Every structure is written in C-alpha cells, then in structure tokens.
What does this fold into?
Amino acid sequence: MALGWRQIKGRWMQDAVIDAVVIGRNEGARLIGCLQSLQGRVRRLVYVDSGSTDGSVAAARALGAEVVALDMRHSFTAARARNAGLAVLDAPEFVQFVDGDCVVQPGWLAAALAGFSGHPAAVVICGRRRERYPEASVYNHLADIEWDTPVGRATACGGDALMRFAAVQAVGGYNADLIAGEEPDLCLRLGRSGGEVWRIDAEMTLHDANLRRFGQWWQRMVRTGFAFAEGAARYGAAPERHWLTEMRRAMLWGMALPIGVVVAGLIHPLGWVLALIYPVQVARLARRNGWAWGFFTVIGKFAEARGVLSYWGNRVRGRRRGLIEYK
It folds into this structure.
C-alpha cells in the first residue's frame, strides 16, 4: 500500500509499501477487530493461526486476509508464527507486526512512517500500546502501566511494531525457539547490525489483555522471569548485559531475601524484622505509579524467581520448556 506524502510529512516515503502480519489463536471477536483495523491500510494482510478452534481461520478469510495455518505437530511459539508470516511476504519495504488481541489505531501507520523519516537509522518504530479495558481488573491496569515505556531511543519493542522488512530478514527473523522475550532478542540482533529502535509519541494499538484472575497474572510474571533468565543466558555476558540486572533483581527479591529473612528469624526472633524490607519497597515503588503497582511489582518478583528457576532447571536437565500460557 502506498501512503501519500501529505499524510506522513516525508515525500521520500510516498510509495512506501507496507504489509502486515497478525498472529493469534482463538482470539474470536478480538481478531476480527484487529483485522478490520488494518483493512485497506496495508498492501497484504497476513494472518498466522496457531491451531484455533473458534472459527478464527474462516473469519480471517472472510475479511480478506491471507491465512497461514501453522503445523501444530511442531512446538508453537509466537516467534515461529511471526516468521511464518514473514516467509510468505514478497519483500515489502515495511512490515507491521500485530498481536491478534490488538486493534491498530487509525493514525498509526502514517505516524510510524514519519518516525522512520525522522530517524534514518531506525529499523523498528513502535508507539503507545494501551489496554482497552484498564478498569476491568487491577491486572489490566498494571499491564497498561507496563506498556507506557519512555519515548525515544529504545532497546526493544513489544509484539506490535512497524519494522523494515529487509533488516529483519538480514538477521534471520525471530528466534523461533524462544517461548518468551522474542522481540527484545530480535531488537538486540538488529542493534548489533547497526539498526536503531525508536518509540515515538503516537498512539499505536489498543490491547485486550483480558487478565481477570490472580493466577493469570502470576503465570504471566513466571513467563517474564523465564524470559529474563534465557535472555541473560544468551547475551548477559555480552556488552549489552541483556536482562542480567532484571534476572538478578528477581532472584534477590524473590528468593535470596526470603531465605535470608527465614534464616535470620530462626537464629533470633528479632531477625523477622528484616521482613519489613518488603513493605518499605512497596511504599517506595508506590510513589511512582500507585499502591497497586508497588504491591504487585514486589509480589511479582516471587513469580519471576520461579520463572528463572524453571529456565535453569530445564537447562540443567537438558529439557525444553513448553509455552507458559496465561490466557
């Protein structure tokens, strides 16, 4: 699809060709909304389905999307699905990746192209992802805060972003073996190749996390810890020190300090006073984004530590962990 220069403030982008790759599984009405938000705005709209049983494939075809159905006899990852979408494209200049539970905002593609015009070395442009229903649960609210990352040069993007197709292809696409953290992994490799990732001040997508239960949120944080551990194992010793700090922080607050408190308390009753470090940390974090953010950020370190231990436990045993699903 070509966008006119009046829309994007950059005549050199007048004939920019954009394709879109949407991934999903059993997203139902959310997928329909996602595909509709891209209709007529991209040259090719590709939907990669990962074993849906809710009619998603038929709905996507009815909306004019090209459907790629993954062979579910092989292990599924979001990275594998995105690569499958990339594989059917015929060299567009840009590819918009979108998760099937997101709706692309009307002005996003024009804003993203303008972002590329303003940052010639950029290979990834992302914007503000918002939760559609942040008031539905505290967990949705936390996700909305999480998406609000700083505007400017970034180290990584999320599942929704506009990327230069050639740059992604040049580094081999996504790492299909990763069950989590595939976008930061890709962005790190793009950065090593000289590309830049930028987050611009523009509305990008509305996301429907649909997190209603504590167990869902807990599993999501376990998944985060697993990604921290795997990322640190791959790149922690490199100049980027990828996710090394995050992994260590999870293990400190989620395992080392609790063990220290218990040991101190068993040695002497006053040792239990050390447990007060946790409410103090909650209060400190609450000053930034409120009490819910402070409380769940601290509690989440226990789940992240579990994810870190899961990664290393599987690695020591030579096993590959399956998906950590939370929805």
User: Anything to note?
Assistant: The radius of gyration is 21 Å. Residues 291-317 form the longest helix (27 residues). Strands lie at 18-24, 45-49, 66-69, 94-99, 102-104, 122-131, 152-154, 161-164, 196-207. Residues 144 and 234 are 29 Å apart (CA to CA).
